[in-house]
Structure formats: structure tokens, C-alpha cells
Amino acid sequence: MARVNITQQLINDVGSAIQLMSRTEIAETFPKMSSEVTVNATELATRLIWGKHRELFNLMPREWVKETKQLRIVVRDDVNYTELPKESQPKMPVTLIALTDVYARPNSDTDYSHGGYIAKVALPLSNLVTTRSQESCPAGVNEIIEYCNQQKEVRDIQARWDAIKSQVTTFLQKCSSLNEAVKMYPNIRLYVPKSPYLLNLDKAAVPRKQALKEKAAVLLDTEALTAAAIGAKLSGVEL
């Protein structure tokens, strides 16, 4: 059996493989997820840009304001992460597109892209949740909230795979070689790219001592790792 050392490149390649598994699960779970809201959200955009000063817009000369075709909203997730301080709560960019008759406030933060202005605002998710409960809830609110909730699930999926990556990486770093790792936990192969690493291992490499399997059981949640990798393989991940 050729000896395959645990190198930093191997660790990096295994980490990349696990990240691919994470991305594949997210894509399969949310195949149509988009940060762009395509419904007619003109009313919502106007409310968010002008707020309580909306009535002032009609008093302003048009040269004071910039017509905007998009509104980029940075939503702070203070609903799903109430335990975190304000500055640590996840921030999610959402864009209202194809707006008509919407104008940015004078001296407001705007970008210019693709022939039009893009206005920008920031607000907590709880504001949108409150707006949804009102009778006059404008179009676009439900779509933004749905996207934000999907992002919460995405972060949960990423956190689970990050934990797997940490566990697998720590295990490999404690082994003297990939050969030893495979002897201790044969299904570690599921996380290792076939080329060039597995091609250099004896196909018959299996645990030789019960003590090695017991050691692996202490270092790893072998059942959970095997189940996660098999699920990723069933989703079409090829290493």
C-alpha cells in the first residue's frame, strides 16, 4: 500500500469537497432562491425611501430628486437572531427591481449602474414583519420575508457542514497518514477526492484492529458523518 501523507493540500482539498457538499444541498433545497424581488414593489420602495417625509416629495422640484429603477435593501435579521447584539445580527441584501415612478431622497445614498440610479436603505427584519400584519401591506414584503427566512435556513445548513469540516479536518490532522485514517474510519473516503489521494491507496484498505475503530469513534461522530456524505453523494456530488 502506498503511503499517502496528510499534507496541507490534502486538508484543503477535503475542505473544498465539503464546501461543495454544502453548496449542493443549498442549491437542491432552494432551487429558485433569489435576492431580487420582481413583483411591482413601487409602493413599498416609496415607503422605505421617504418614510414619514413622503408628503414632502410632492413639494420638491423634480431636479432635486433622482428617479431610481432599483432599491437595494440591507435587512438586519433581528427576528431569527434575537440573542445576538445588533451589530452581530446577519445582514441580507435584497433588491427591488423594475421600479417605476420611484425617486430617491435628495442627498441620499445612491449608486449609478446600467443606465439608472439604485437607491439604498437599511432596516431590521422586524419592521417588515410588523408591516406584513397591517391591512395595507404593500407588495414585496412577503417576498422579502420569505427570502430572509430562506437565508436563515441556508446559514443553518452552512453551519452544519462547517461543523463537519472541522470534525473531519481535526481527525485527519491527528492521523499520521491517510492510510491510518482509512484504517480507523473507512468511510472517510467519502470526503477525500479520488484523484490523486484514493488512487494511491490499496483498494483493500480496511480496519485491521478493533482498537483503531474504537479510537475513531472517540474522535468522530462516524454515523452522522457517513449519513451526511451519503446524502451529498445521492445529490450528485462527485469528488
Describe this entry's structure for a reader.
This protein is an alpha/beta fold and 239 residues long. The chain folds into 2 domains: 8-30 and 156-234, no CATH class; 40-139, no CATH class. It has 8 helices and 6 strands. Strands 1, 2, 3, 4, 5 and 6 form a 6-stranded mixed β-sheet that branches. Strand 5 (110-113) and strand 6 (116-124) form a beta hairpin. Helix 1 (8-29) runs antiparallel to helix 5 (141-174) and helix 4 packs antiparallel against helix 5 (141-174). The longest helix is centred in the middle third of the chain and has 34 residues, at 141-174. The radius of gyration is 25 Å and the shape is elongated. The two termini are 22 Å apart. The model has no long low-confidence stretch (mean pLDDT 86).
Helix content estimate: 40-55%
Number of strands: 6
Low-confidence stretches: none
Major sheet details: 6 strands, mixed
N- and C-termini, Cα separation = 22 Å
Globular, elongated, flat, extended or rod-shaped: what is the shape? elongated
Strand content: 5-15%
Helix- and strand-based class? Answer: alpha/beta
User: What's the rounded overall pLDDT mean?
Assistant: 86
State Rg.
Answer: 25 Å
Helix count, per DSSP? 8
Number of structurally distinct domains: 2
SSE order, one letter for each helix or strand: HEHHEEEEEHHHHH
